[in-house]
Automatic annotation (TrEMBL):
Gene3D superfamilies: dinb family like domain (1.20.120.450), E3 ubiquitin-protein ligase SopA (2.160.20.80). Residues 111-254 form the DinB-like domain. InterPro entries: 5peptide_repeat, DinB-like, DinB/YfiT-like. This is Pentapeptide repeat protein. It comes from the Bacteria. The lineage of its organism: Bacteria, Bacillati, Actinomycetota, Actinomycetes, Glycomycetales.
Length: 266
């Protein structure tokens, strides 16, 4: 098998080449041109498809999960349609893009209640199942670890100013570039209670921020330029909280889906 590592193939041309079962990790395909290609069975994770154009494509039995904005399919922007359908299915979801401090407090209360319901369900499974990866996604416990990381990053670091708010069990997203000083042990197998101990601390941290939040503070910006992540200047504080809220919502959906699959396998 031919392997390419740390090479610059800018402008390379591939014609009548068989790349079946090839693996591409941290590969830049910016402005690439793909014509008459067969992508049957392709799996894409953590990809940026901004400003992409697809013409003459055939999409059948396709499952897409991600952030949709200005996605035009056959002349129709499907993003608002998807948003409306998701809000119809989950009425509380519409409350998770608040504009004022009271709205954020309500959103966090909703999320904590929903997650308690999910945890009650998770405790009905053997702990070994909570370490299982379902459909190539994180295990339930890994999901809890990632949410702890997200809260530490966007609230602990960006809002509260702790340059290194990390715990050894924190888990960044799989496609993250990696940073010195930030834990990233995907193979760790803490017990559910061990993962929850960190999770509870982070939830309480976010809750305190929400309880003391004012509309004036919500309209402010934050800057963190110390080594680590995130490193942002003049970033809206409101957006930090929006990110945490949507992380909580989306990953609960993934967790519930995983538990449903595990339940069917019993």
């Amino acid at each position: 098998m031919t392997e390419f590592h740390d090479q610059d193939l800018t402008g390379a041309s591939f014609e009548r080449v068989n790349l079946r079962d090839a693996s591409f990790t941290r590969v830049h395909l910016n402005d690439a041109r793909l014509r008459a290609v067969d992508l049957t069975g392709v799996q894409i994770r953590g990809a940026m498809l901004s400003r992409s154009r697809m013409r003459g494509v055939e999409l059948e039995d396709v499952d897409i999960s991600g952030d949709l904005r200005n996605v035009i399919v056959n002349g129709v922007d499907i993003a608002p349609l998807v948003e409306a359908e998701l809000n119809r299915r989950y009425p509380e979801r519409a409350k998770l893009r608040p504009d004022d401090s009271d709205g954020f407090r309500e959103a966090w209360t909703i999320l904590e209640r929903l997650w308690e319901e999910t945890l009650t369900r998770a405790r009905t499974f053997p702990e070994a199942d909570l370490h299982r990866s379902v459909d190539d996604e994180w295990s339930f416990i890994q999901t809890l670890r990632h949410l702890s990381f997200a809260s530490a990053a966007w609230v602990g670091r960006m809002i509260l100013g702790d340059a290194a708010p990390w715990h050894p069990l924190d888990l960044p997203w799989d496609e993250a570039p990696g940073w010195d000083g930030i834990p990233w042990d995907r193979q760790a197998r803490p017990t559910l209670d061990e993962a929850l101990a960190v999770r509870r601390e982070r939830q309480a941290m976010v809750r305190r921020v929400m309880e003391n939040l004012t509309d004036e503070q919500l309209a402010s910006e934050v800057t963190r330029l110390e080594p680590g992540w995130p490193r942002l200047e003049g970033f809206p504080l409101k957006e930090c909280l929006h990110i945490v809220v949507m992380e909580e919502w989306e990953h609960r959906q993934y967790a519930e889906r995983g538990l449903t699959i595990l339940d069917k396998e019993k």
